[in-house]
Write the structure tokens for this entry.
Amino acid sequence: MRIKMKSFRILAGLIVLIAGGTQNLMATNAVAAGTCKPALPSFTTIQAAVNAAPAAGTVWVCPGNYPEQVVISQPLTLQGVTNIGAAVIVPPVTGIVANSVLGLAGQIVVQDAAGVTIRDIAVDGSNNGLVSCSVTFVGILFENASGLVDQAATRHQTFAGNPTCDGRGIEVRTDTGLSSTVTIQNSTVHDFQFEGIRALGRGTAVAVKNTSVSGVLFSQTSSNNIDFFEGASGSVTASWIVDAQFAPLVYPNFNSGAWGILIDCASGVSLTGNTISDTQSGIVMLSSLCSTASSPNADNNNASGNFITGSHLFEGVYVCGNNNTVENNFINSSDESAVDVETRCNAGSGNNNTVAGNKINEACAGVLLDPLATGNIIGSNRLANIHFQQLSGVIGANACDASGDQGVSAKLRPSN
């Protein structure tokens, strides 16, 4: 009986030692910014906590405002402590400055690192002190880096002194020969000045899921709520893309504007199950000034199962690329055409696209097809409350404008 009891005591002691070692290991892998985690080493700033955290560790961020710019260059998790308040990164009292290797000014900069998670953190750019357009201001910036942004918020990345400067909510960008893969999910992006989410460069792959991106109505700068640019790829799924209108725009100028989702010189982007509303064009696939050496045309992209409504001045979906698919979307209230397939943006674009299975309600034209475009499949689309079923050519201001039908030119074919 004594032997058994002694063995039990030894075993219990081992369990205590193992448990204690596990707790110590957990403690060494985590630090805190703030004082809400008394068992962890704590720091007064997020940057100090990030600097002290081991690779693949966790930085717990207690509720409160943190006036700083944070740079992360190793794998770790930046985790807000929830249910007792919000952890908010705000500009330093001395103002925002450039802090990335590329000269951008980021409130959180992740550079040259993989496995970085930013979760339950708000990034607020209010009162940033920026007046000059000499820097690009970004809420969360990934440079040659990969990771996850989950249930985060970026807001007010704007220049109070100049409404035409470049402020962005979230940006992922990659240098030549490198790669960045970032998922943005369950998050909100709003009150930015130029772009809500930008994916830039060949090697960049961004997946946006269940995220709300709200632009600015009647802004003084052309803007994009989401932009895949210069060879970036990725997807936007089950997200809300709303409010993007460039105030100075005059119909029928298409040289600039405010677009819900822009795919510019990018290929292999999938847009599914999104709601896109109150933009000047809901989805734009554009092959303007693309260089085959660095980025493809807007080719092989897919837009399906989206709800696109309230496209002011222009189209629900604009396609100037090749082998793109626009299928099974609900496209309502387009001032110009619901879908426009064009060659004007770049020579060799506008070919072999498929437009089919869409339900279109209220538009000047159901489908506008450039007569120079070839190999396009215009399948069965259900049309209601439109002026013209299919047009060939360019819609002129005398035919349709923001006020609706203004007459019929010789090149327009009325609906049956």
